[in-house]
Design a protein that fits this description.
alpha+beta, five-stranded antiparallel beta sheet, 2 helices
């Protein structure tokens, strides 16, 4: 009985890994520069989903957070593709705290790694957030 249970559990784990169901467990990453902290957390990068979602939080103690994240973000796959966001769902421009979800079309075939770049106004280089998927 025990070996049969082990085989069933192993089969479930292999199935979950093959479908990318564990991809949502990627860690949050933070970048602080020029008085602004940007935190990004992948929300859903599993196979078969309608969109790849990234929770984005921007915080500052001075100035206004007027970023247009649909225009300033790009998702890079490890095979060189550039993918633009299709939608921002969250707080609009302004204020000292913004939070929402940046949505992208899923990359197919699934890359081994991804990089989300956010180019903030007035900053010379984009903020870069990288995750290993495979």
């Amino acid at each position: 009985m025990r070996s049969r249970l082990t085989v069933i559990v192993s089969g479930i784990l292999v199935s979950l890994l093959a479908t990318g169901a564990f991809a949502a467990a990627l860690d949050a990453q933070r970048s602080g520069a020029a008085g602004v902290t940007v935190a990004v957390t992948p929300q859903n990068l599993a196979a078969g989903v309608k969109s790849w979602d990234f929770k984005v939080v921007l915080d500052t103690h001075s100035g206004s957070l007027d970023d247009d994240l649909v225009k300033s973000a790009v998702l890079l796959g490890d095979k060189g593709g550039r993918h633009l966001p299709v939608k921002w769902e969250g707080a609009g421009p302004g204020g000292h705290h913004r939070e929402g979800t940046l949505k992208f079309e899923p990359i197919s075939p699934a890359p081994g790694a991804i990089e989300l770049q956010i180019q903030r106004p007035g900053e010379p280089k984009p903020r870069s957030f990288r995750w290993q998927l495979k």
